[in-house]
Write a structure and sequence with these properties.
The chain has 187 residues and is mainly α. The protein has 8 helices and no strands. The protein has helices spanning 2-25, 38-56, 68-81, 83-86, 107-113, 116-125, 141-153, 159-178.
Length: 187
């Protein structure tokens, strides 16, 4: 038993020394144009996923997250802050986003896999070394919940439905600015 424990301890120490030597060597390519290996992507994905799950346990979603007014407000926030990197149904991310490593995930898939509390936590806190900023000092909590509510609707939107929602929102915004009712039978 003692030999087994010594063997495990030696393995852990050698592993730690090897990891430290690798990190110190500087040989791992960190340029944004060099793709990480599959194992690095998988390890980062597990680390981010577990960290967000644990951290989001403290987040409580507001009642009626699916209110139409909240979702419309979230669309406006999404168009201003998220669309450039994440795209939308039928809308590609901006060209600069294709050079990000890791690339920003499509939020349609994120909304299928993550709870609203987890999405909110990421919007609020960001993700270090992933290009995802924290919006805590840019958006109010209501705006962050609105964009969370909108992200939750993304899996239900086809490209045509997304375009129609944007057009309707633009028409309503224009009508509100001009003081006249929106044309086209807005909601």
């Amino acid at each position: 038993m003692r030999n087994a424990l010594l063997g495990i301890a030696a393995f852990v120490v050698l592993g730690a020394i090897g990891a430290a030597a690798f990190l110190w060597s500087g040989v791992y390519p960190i340029g944004a144009t060099t793709q990480h290996s599959r194992i690095v992507y998988d390890l980062v994905e597990v680390m981010v996923r577990r960290a967000v799950e644990e951290s989001a346990d403290q987040v409580v979603a507001p009642a009626r997250l699916d209110e139409e007014a909240r979702i419309r407000a979230g669309l406006a926030v999404y168009e201003g802050w998220c669309l450039q990197c994440h795209g939308a149904p039928g809308v590609a991310p901006a060209p600069f986003a294709t050079g990000m490593n890791p690339p920003p995930p499509p939020l349609v898939q994120t909304a299928r896999e993550w709870t609203p509390e987890e999405v909110f936590w990421v919007v609020d806190n960001g993700i270090a070394m992933a290009g995802m900023p924290s919006f805590r000092f840019k958006l109010t909590p209501d705006e962050m919940w609105a964009v969370t509510a909108f992200v939750e609707t993304l899996p239900t939107l086809s490209p045509a439905a997304y375009a129609a929602l944007v057009a309707r929102s633009d028409a309503q915004g224009e009508a509100a600015r001009s003081g006249s009712p929106a044309r086209g039978g807005g909601t």
